[in-house]
Amino acid sequence: MTKSDLVEHVASKTGLTKRAAGDALEAVLAAVEGALSKGDKVTLTGFGTFSVRSRKERMGRNPQTGAPLRIPATKVPGFTAGKALKKAVK
């Protein structure tokens, strides 16, 4: 499902126009992005939790030359599915 498919689905379920549904979806995504950029968690009960995870520095290899290289530590977004979502997928 793409973003436009999701907008269409929300519009049909709520009776909103596609433009209004798209604006609502953009607002939700911006709120999640803003919270994660501050280091906060976003919990949607029954659906899941978005959080920021830290990756440690590690050694890797250049696939073309095989030379070892250092991959720096970084922060990445993570998602943990909630109980209801896990049950629905089963």
Automatic annotation (TrEMBL):
SUPFAM superfamilies, sorted: IHF-like DNA-binding proteins
Where does the signal sequence lie?
A: none
Q: Does the keyword DNA-binding apply?
A: yes
Pfam families (alphabetical): Bac_DNA_binding
Question: Coiled-coil stretches, from where to where?
Answer: none
Q: Annotated Gene Ontology MF terms? A: DNA binding; identical protein binding; structural constituent of chromatin
- GO biological process per UniProt: chromosome condensation; DNA replication initiation; gene expression
**What Gene3D superfamilies does the database record attribute to this sequence?**
IHF-like DNA-binding proteins
Keyword tags: DNA condensation, DNA-binding
* GO cellular component, as recorded: cytosol; DnaA-HU complex; HU-DNA complex
Answer yes or no on keyword DNA-binding.
yes
Question: What InterPro entries does the database record attribute to this sequence?
Answer: Hist_DNA-bd, Histone-like_DNA-bd_CS, IHF-like_DNA-bd_dom_sf
Q: Which PANTHER family match?
A: DNA-BINDING PROTEIN HU, DNA-BINDING PROTEIN HU-BETA
Name the family.
Answer: Belongs to the bacterial histone-like protein family.
What is the protein's name according to its record? DNA-binding protein HU
